[in-house]
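Design review, sub-item: ligand-bound model
Attendees: FS, YL, KQ
YL presented the inputs for the flavin-adenine dinucleotide complex:
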Amino acid sequence: MMARKLDALVVGAGPVGLNMAAALLAQGLHVRIIDSAADRAQESRAIGIQARTLEVFEISGILNEFLELGHRLNGVTLYGETGAEIGHLDFGHIPSRYPFILTLPQSETERILGDHLRRSGLEIERQTTLISFEQSDFAVFAKIALPDGRNEEICADWLLGCDGARSEVRESLGLQFAGKTFDLHFLLGDFHAESTLSEDHAHVFGRPEGLLAFFPLGKGRYRLVADNPPEQLRSEKKPTLSEWQGIADGRSSTQMKLSDLGWTTYFRVNSRMVERLRRGRAFVLGDAAHIHSPALAQGMNTGIQDAWNLGWKLALVQRCFAQPALLDSFERERLPIEHNVLRMTEFTQNMITAEKRSNRLLRDTLLPILSGINAFQKTATKTVSETVIEYRSSPVVEDHYAPDGPHAGDFAAGALVSRPGKNGKIALATLFGREHVLLCLATPQSWQDGLQTVKPIFELIHKHYGQIITPYFILPNEGLAAQSDVDVLVDVEGQFAQQYAASVLYLVRPDGYIAFRCLAAKQNLLQSYIDKYFLPL
Ligand SMILES: Cc1cc2nc3c(=O)[nH]c(=O)nc-3n(C[C@H](O)[C@H](O)[C@H](O)COP(=O)(O)OP(=O)(O)OC[C@H]3O[C@@H](n4cnc5c(N)ncnc54)[C@H](O)[C@@H]3O)c2cc1C
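KQ shared the predicted structure:
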């Protein structure tokens, strides 16, 4: 029997490759994932998981394990030159059902993602390295080195380069990784610590001696990051516990007793990115495409969003359900976001480290004022949590008039709904992930008229696009559901009506972003949109 042709080869099983493989697998694609390392990351590395990533994990059905294992940070407190508090960010402003940063070592994140992949039937092929690849208009031909020393030639339709900052895929594609290495030196260490600092906040001290950031990981464990280390520690030599204690004593304004030193390392910060995310049938994502300061904990989160954005598009095109042009939108949607992340992390790093005294004085004067302004809290927390991400100006997003509610391009706001005749509420997000979902909220007074209005477009979708779009009419109560002959969800708590306009068609993409919006009465606009991007059965 001939082996089924490989749809995609994912190179790299870091957090980005694992998410990429999971997204493609969920869409029914035949995928292999290889990694040159013998095991997953053993170090804590990326510890901050942002709200938008948690929302993505909710759609993927893996959120609960993260919430159970992670530690919630409700804000960050900043201390200035004298050690006094100069400002704070309150994550309660994050517009999400998950208004916090979850701290969890990257080793655990990779374990959860790897287990998820295994449960879905895919094993990571370890000690397996991409050596080189070529591509034609129709396929990619990759040479990989196997653990037993043999080489294997693989033919796949697509190649996903999730192979980190030193990406072989990026090199082979000839993509420039333009940017700079900052003249800044950092130390990082994980500890047990005794201190009076609250465990539900991160604490950042910007003292004349240098920066000290203190991130609770839960159960008495903490991550410390310091810049400007003593000269003898500006190397690959690992700092000792007493050297760390000295740094903490000199920079924290409160006593901190460190013990049980875990992973510790020295690092420099780069800010680099590619100008293209794709050449032909090969893509680069995550650290292979962009690296920057760890300030604001964006790197892993941004990479996971890259994979999340590409997965469903690649699958629809590969399954011949969408026009290949859909894939061009990956770069159009993600490159501006990656540019912003580089700019924002660089700005934050400069502001917090503030090496010059004049800059520290400016920072210590401005931050207390800014922290008291509600609009600043909202904007800053939205940015950090990545809930600011929207694709309103994407070429594959179309927005038409609606009286209120989210726009096309926005992330579809969460709500609890129920299915008629079934006990229990479900998060709207659990309906996303695989197909597009069409949502239309009934007007309570005239829901029957509303039903008649949407019926033609619902029927057209069932007939020609049933495998890729699922439409739901949303009713205010279960009693009406029995009288309706289309798929219905019940807005049991009125949460949907609070956030979305009635009699408006919202087409939600598998990644949870709204692709299209128009009044139900103007459903011919939706039909044109569907005809433009999707291929009928
Ligand atoms: C100190 C520090 C703190 C950080 N803190 C945060 C944070 O709090 N939040 C955050 O979002 N980000 C943070 N980051 C960034 C984050 O760690 C990275 O952005 C993230 O690991 C990138 O994931 P990735 O999957 O793209 O790459 P990687 O994690 O680097 O994975 C790439 C994988 O590809 C494999 N590979 C490479 N070449 C090949 C090949 N030729 N063939 C096969 N396999 C190959 C490697 O073995 C590796 O497993 C931090 C980074 C550092 C250094």
